[in-house]
Amino acid sequence: MDVFGIPAELEHAVYVIVLGSFLASVSNAAFSTGGAMIILAFTSTVLPVSAIVPIHSTLLIGSTASRAIVFRRYIDWRIAGPFLAGSIVAVALGARLYFELPDSAIGIAIATVMLIAIWLPQISWRPKLRHPWLIIGFVHSLLSTLFAYGALLHAVILHTGLQRRQVVGTMAAALTGMGLFKIAGYALNGFDYRPFLAMILLAMAAAFFGTWVGKRINDRVSERVFRFVFRVLVTITAIRLMYVHMANS
User: Fold this and answer.
1) pLDDT tens-digit map of 177-221
2) Which of 16, 26, 76, 192 is spaced 20 to 30 Å from 48 by Cα?
3) Which of 55, 154, 44, 137 is nearest to 98 (CA)?
4) Contact between 140 and 150 (Cβ < 8 Å)
5) Which pTM does this prediction carry?
């Protein structure tokens, strides 16, 4: 494994995380969600706690970027553009705060945010906000920078009336930009990505293949099944994360 530049104690992590990246991309391309939680579940079992969130961001880039390319015709830039404007400000703030948080607080907060987001009622969110996606971009990105999963975009975008492929493409564009901001933010605040570079590249390659597989599943899965799988994936992952971190706190 030395040829990959991976520390000996992390050799097994390469295989686990590459598999996780593939499955995350299949889920994201097919259902527009689930990938972040799949990656989080895989990384939390094989990486040091201090590396989970910064590495999580890099592993999602392959999945989100490949979806943005495959579904580029369906991106709604009226949503993605303002989202990214709010995101860059949030990441600059959140990346500094992240390294001051205790591990147990991060884990419990991730689970709580996921459960709240996925079970939000279908409320009227747009009328009272002049620029809703700017605010959503800030809040989602701040939570994502601190706790790996912002949740807000995933919950709100399902209430917009966009079709499934529009949801997939628009989320991919927004999350790719946010992910690049996060990686830069963690690096500027001292996280060293160099020991993980080869693993990240392998995971990104797996993500592109996973997107190809997921796109074909997307064509065959009904809207009802899509939304059901979305909720099941988020809920199961959140309960698992909360249990693990409460038991260790």
Assistant:
1) 999 999 999 999 999 998 888 888 888 889 888 888 887 877 677
2) 26
3) 55
4) yes
5) 0.76
Closest CA to 87 of 134, 51, 152, 125: 134
DSSP three-state, residue 161? coil
Give the separation between CA 152 and CA 43, rounded to whole angstroms.
Answer: 22
Residues 6+ apart with CB under 8 A from 54: 182, 183, 186, 191, 193
Q: Which amino acid is at 138?
A: F
18 in Cβ contact with 10 (< 8 Å)? no
- Encoding tokens for residue 106? 């991060």
Using CB atoms within 10 A of its CB, is residue 182 exposed (0-12), middle (13-18) or buried (19+)? buried
Q: Are 174 and 152 in contact (CB under 8 A)?
A: no
Assigned token pair, 135: 């605010």
Residue 114 scores a pLDDT above 80: no
**How crowded is the C-beta side of 127, counted as CA atoms within 13 Å?**
2
Helix axes 197-218, 49-70, angle to 10 degrees: 40
Q: Which two tokens stand for residue 107?
A: 């884990």
pLDDT category, 124, cuts 50, 70, 90?
Answer: very low
